[in-house]
Amino acid sequence: MYGEEVAAMAGRIRDEDIALVRERTSIADVISETVTLRSAGGGNLKGLCPFHDEKSPSFNVSPARNVWYCFGCGAGGDAIKFLMDAEHLSFIESVERLAARAGIQLRYVESDNSAPRSRPQQGQKQRLVAAHAAAVEFYRAQLTTPGARPAREFLARRGFDRAAAERYGCGFAPDGWDLLTKHLRQQGFTHDELVTAGLSRPARSGSLIDRFRRRLLWPIRDLTGDVIGFGARKLFDDDDGPKYLNTPETPIYKKSHVLYGIDQAKREIAKQGKVVVVEGYTDVMACHLAGVPTAVATCGTSFGADHIGVLRRLLLDTDAVAGEIIFTFDGDAAGQKAALRAFDDDQRFVGRTFIAVSPDNMDPCELRLAKGDLAVRDLVARREPLVDFALRHVISRYDLDTVDGRVEAMRRAAPLVAKIKDREKRPEYVRKLAGDLGMEIEPVQRAVLAAAHAPPQGRGDTAAPRPAPAEPTVDSPQSMVEREALKLALQVPVLAGPMFDAVEAPAYRHPVHVAVRAAVAAAGGAAAATGGAVWIESVRDACDDLAAKALVGELAVEPLRIDGEPDPRYVSVTMARLQWGSVTGRIRDLKSKIQRINPVSNKDEYFAAFGELLSLEQHARALREQAAGGL
Fold first, then answer.
1. CA nearest 260: which of 291, 225, 292?
2. I want to staple 398 with a disulfide (CB 3.0 to 4.6 A). Which of 5, 125, 154, 409 is the partner?
3. 338-356 mean pLDDT
4. In angstroms, how far is CA 607 from the centroid of its own chain?
5. 259-390: which CATH topology?
6. Rounded distance, CA 305 to CA 310, Å?
7. What does this protein do (predicted)?
8. Is 108 within 8 Å of 121 (Cβ atoms)?
């Protein structure tokens, strides 16, 4: 579940320390700071889910196993996962916060599994964050000086008063070569720390000078609110640098992951299920102040896949929960190109994606200044689906009064319709495209199907596909037994482990149950587990299937179908019933096979199958007697 995030770190936290954090963290204490929990019987707690709107509590917490699960939205996990979802933190950040809470000193290891080290990387991060915090205060103080008048006037011309400047931490880099550098060196920051942080840089003379000079600055914060970099706006004509200058790549500032304003917008984004992507710092400020608190902006780079990852986490953008992403671009050619590029990126979103373009080609900051806060809110409210914008843009390049123009426009637009991830919308867009082109629906439909690259049937294979074995429904007796067996493995592995592991995957028929059973084996088997959140998370991590991951969380807190505590006899009865269902299915298949065998011409095959049938029937009788105790 989180393994890929841990592995991606240059120095990951030791597995033993992560396990210790889970062991020493009271999940009830962590969650009760956000959710009001009440007893649900059996030692479990229940409350209203913080991740979706509900009137009846379906959010369950199991303190005994240190896990939680919501039967309403399917979210679940341990205390680390709860912090990730509730506070919009990364895995590493969540572990570090819980470790600090529990008084645990984390150790880190290199990605090549070399010897553990005590926290220089984390110590470095703290030092770089501290240096940026000190720089913010220095730059903010400079904004009030006489030399910063051009910066104050720049903000005022764009409709931002002193309160707005303070809210966003705006500052000014003064006209001096090393004023910030000297200030930070006096506070104990080293030469290497300032260079690594991107706050200072070596001059040709060898001395250390400030990276930013004579510029208006915006501090750039991460999801937790820590300042990790700056964006600097050119103010003077004799400044030969770029219009905007950003902090370079550093250990804490990765521009492909950073979204300006995310620290102030994250809670509203999660609450509203909506994010507005704008193009600049002043656009974020204008949107927030105008009543659009979900606005964010990229920092010196194009909107890309890593930004999508950040927003998906905030939007809870899954197959079941669709967020809303609204891009605002200028109406000029560059803005249109950016919008079409966003359409390609949008295919990575499950959420609905829109575009908002001002009729006067003004960005949100200009629009607020010219027409007020309401105009900014109206801009967002009048958004249109991004696919509509993309189709209109493509079609506009062709002369639809000619046959060649209509056909070429159809060919260019069909792939856009084929890319629409919501398949139920495609037929409607086929009809819309046909109407816009003035063509019959059939050729447009064929063009879209061709663009979708549907795999052709094999040329020489004329046999009908063999039907798959019927899968038991989720409420069938077989599925209920499979579910109970998996619950025993997850909740009481010390008791159920040996008997559970002895029954292999072929005994399970429901595909999601098969996936969970395989994950239990991949996690080392139930017999070797000690239970609790670490065991459950290891099984969840081993699941390749998203549905299986969700089911693990659900089964971890679902009560067993027995009054009181399970005992070895209950485990034995459950596993016997599980096997009995599998064996009787094999008996039916074997009887059918025997009926198709000619005992005269295939005597050996016939007697082998008949002997196997007798053995299976004997096994079934023994299982039936063992399972006679009932669930």
1. 225
2. 409
3. 67
4. 56
5. Dna Topoisomerase Vi A Subunit; Chain: A, domain 2 (3.40.1360)
6. 9
7. RNA polymerase that catalyzes the synthesis of short RNA molecules used as primers for DNA polymerase during DNA replication.
8. yes
Cβ–Cβ under 8 Å, residues 516 and 551: yes
Q: In the prediction, which pLDDT does 587 show?
A: 80
Answer CATH for 3-110 from 3.40.50.1820, 3.40.640.10, 3.90.580.10, 3.40.50.1950: 3.90.580.10
pLDDT-based confidence at residue 466 (cuts at 50, 70, 90):
very low
Specify the amino acid at residue 41.
G
Closest CA to 569 of 496, 621, 624: 496
Residues in the chain: 631
**Domain spans in the chain, listed from the N-terminal domain onward:** 3-110, 120-246, 259-390, 397-451, 477-629
pLDDT value for 157: 96
Helix (H, G, I), strand (E, B) or coil at 216: strand
| Residues linked to residue 70 through DSSP beta bridges, in sequence order | 59
CB 219, CB 136: distance < 8 Å? yes
**Exposure pattern of 35-62 as b/e (b: 16+ CB <10 Å)?**
bebeebeeebbbbbbbbbeeeebbbbbb
Q: Which amino acid is at 384?
A: E
CA distances (Å), origin 208, targets 137, 181, 190, 201: 20, 7, 11, 6
CB 135 within 8 A of CB 184: yes
- Given pLDDT bands bounded at 50, 70 and 90, which one contains residue 506? confident
Q: Which two tokens stand for residue 488?
A: 């025993």
Q: Do residues 106 and 17 make contact, with C-beta atoms less than 8 angstroms apart?
A: yes
Q: Is 348 helix (H, G, I), strand (E, B) or coil?
A: coil
CA-to-CA separations, 505 to 512, 530, 615, in angstroms, rounded: 11, 22, 20
What is the pairing mode between strands 259-260 and 295-298?
A: antiparallel
Cβ neighbours, 10 Å, residue 324: 19
Give every strand in the sheet of 352-356, ordered side by side.
259-260, 295-298, 274-278, 324-328, 352-356, 384-385
Residue pair 68/533 in contact (Cβ under 8 Å)? The answer is: no
Residue type, 178: D
Mean pLDDT of 403-426: 85
Two domains, one topology: 3-110 and 259-390: no
pLDDT confidence of residue 230: 97
**pLDDT for position 322:** 62
Rounded percentage of the chain residues whose pLDDT exceeds 90? 29
- The residue among 35, 18, 26 whose CA lies nearest residue 86 is 35
150 Cβ neighbours under 8 A, 6+ residues apart: 216, 235, 236
| The pTM of the whole model exceeds 0.70 | no
Q: What is the dihedral of CA 442, 443, 447, 450, to 10 degrees?
A: 70
Residue with tokens 């033993």: 16
Give the DSSP letter of residue 172: E
CATH, domain range 120-246: 3.90.980.10
Cβ neighbours, 10 Å, residue 113 = 8
Beta-sheet pairing, 108-110 with 76-77: unpaired
Give the integer Cα–Cα distance in Å for 41 and 558: 12
How far lies 243's CA from each of 231, 233, 246, 336, 391, in Å?
Answer: 10, 6, 10, 22, 33
In single-letter form, the type of residue at position 567 comes to D
